[in-house]
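FORM 12-B: Structure-to-Sequence Request
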């Protein structure tokens, strides 16, 4: 069966929320005070300490901005990761993800290199393109124009990897002129050196696989980038198809891997005595997550009418919306006893033997006390069963 599985969790930065679920407060009506929004940092610390104590390997954090609603409230995951490295001993801190179009690529490269050095290699580098127009466009980069967004992103990653790997470099493109040919002291600039560069090289780079498009996979193959993919798959492809396409692309670019290697599979989960109790306890979190993400295009085939119903607490409970049961059936959610969850993970491992990285996460809106209790149970009851 190969190496033991390294388990992680994604904490995207939601504060404890009240009045949630289909009958709860509409997303756009939430406007939390700063005193509440900053609780994201103590919550992240509690989660990190729990993971460190119960056998997890990684905590992944997500970069987001301007979210006064309280859902994703970590603007700089490298700064937070550096802090969390001081209050934990073993876990690695993953960037899931730094949104490159909201950065100058050289500032992102410098900040990661600094974190790499100061944490002795405990920060995992990850990059994404962004999906909130308010965030990406708010920083002056394209998001609505997906072609422009991807072209900018790819150019930025080329620059970052040059900066990481070359003692000096230059880069001249549609978006960047690095360095500009200007006088400096007594010469004209022709190249730059990143100071500092990461000391743990080659840098392990991760990126989300959202659509599974050939262009995205080709770019990942060219640079040997690792991929995070939901357990239900990406776009119109299931997990097996994504794993096979990723492997084929990596082999094409000379990366000798086995099926599932360098992929991280992500689940939502909830442990209870049985599946029925787990569903009863977690349904409101599932519903709150749909309220946030469906209008952003994260649910396939949602109509404008369904979005309107989702935003109305009087109509959403009776609307024809995707159910928690469907998400359990598709494999996105793991709900039930610790033994049943372990069995599903072991079945995945048999099916795709190269997978050694799995994220199990709690949904948007879940309170700190529930998250820490669930992660504690997973670490004590599931991880030993899977890796025993």
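FORM 12-B RESPONSE
SEQUENCE OUT:
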């Amino acid at each position: 069966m190969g190496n033991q599985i390294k388990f992680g969790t994604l904490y995207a930065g939601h504060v404890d929320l009240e009045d949630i679920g289909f009958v709860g407060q509409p997303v756009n009506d939430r406007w939390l005070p700063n005193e509440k929004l900053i609780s994201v940092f103590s919550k992240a610390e509690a989660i990190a300490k729990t993971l460190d104590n119960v056998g997890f390997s990684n905590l992944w954090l997500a970069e987001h901005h301007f979210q006064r609603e309280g859902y994703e409230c970590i603007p700089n995951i490298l700064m937070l990761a550096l802090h969390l490295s001081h209050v934990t001993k073993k876990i690695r801190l993953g960037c899931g993800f730094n949104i490159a179009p909201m950065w100058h690529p050289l500032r992102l490269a410098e900040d990661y290199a600094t974190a790499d050095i100061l944490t002795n290699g405990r920060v995992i580098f990850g990059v994404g393109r962004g999906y909130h127009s308010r965030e990406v466009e708010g920083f002056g980069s394209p998001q609505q124009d997906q072609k422009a967004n991807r072209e900018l992103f790819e150019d930025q990653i080329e620059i970052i990897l040059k900066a990481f790997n070359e003692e000096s470099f230059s880069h001249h493109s549609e978006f960047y002129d690095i360095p500009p040919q200007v006088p400096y002291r007594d010469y004209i600039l022709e190249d730059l050196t990143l100071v500092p560069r990461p000391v743990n090289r080659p840098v392990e780079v991760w990126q989300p696989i959202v659509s599974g498009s050939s262009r995205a996979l080709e770019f990942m193959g060219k640079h040997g980038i690792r991929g995070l993919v939901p357990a239900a798959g990406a776009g119109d492809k299931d997990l097996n198809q994504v794993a096979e396409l990723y492997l084929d692309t990596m082999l094409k670019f000379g990366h000798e891997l086995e099926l599932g290697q360098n992929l991280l599979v992500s689940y939502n989960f909830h442990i209870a005595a049985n599946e029925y109790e787990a569903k009863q306890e977690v349904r409101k979190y599932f519903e709150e997550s749909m309220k946030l993400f469906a209008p952003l295009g994260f649910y396939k085939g949602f109509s404008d009418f369904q979005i309107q119903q989702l935003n109305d607490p009087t109509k959403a409970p009776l609307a024809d919306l995707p159910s928690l049961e469907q998400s359990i059936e598709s494999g996105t959610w793991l709900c039930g006893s610790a033994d049943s969850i372990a069995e599903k993970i072991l079945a995945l491992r048999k099916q795709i033997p190269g997978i050694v990285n799995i994220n199990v996460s709690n949904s948007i809106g879940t309170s700190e006390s529930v998250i820490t209790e669930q992660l504690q149970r997973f670490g004590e009851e599931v991880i030993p069963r899977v890796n025993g």
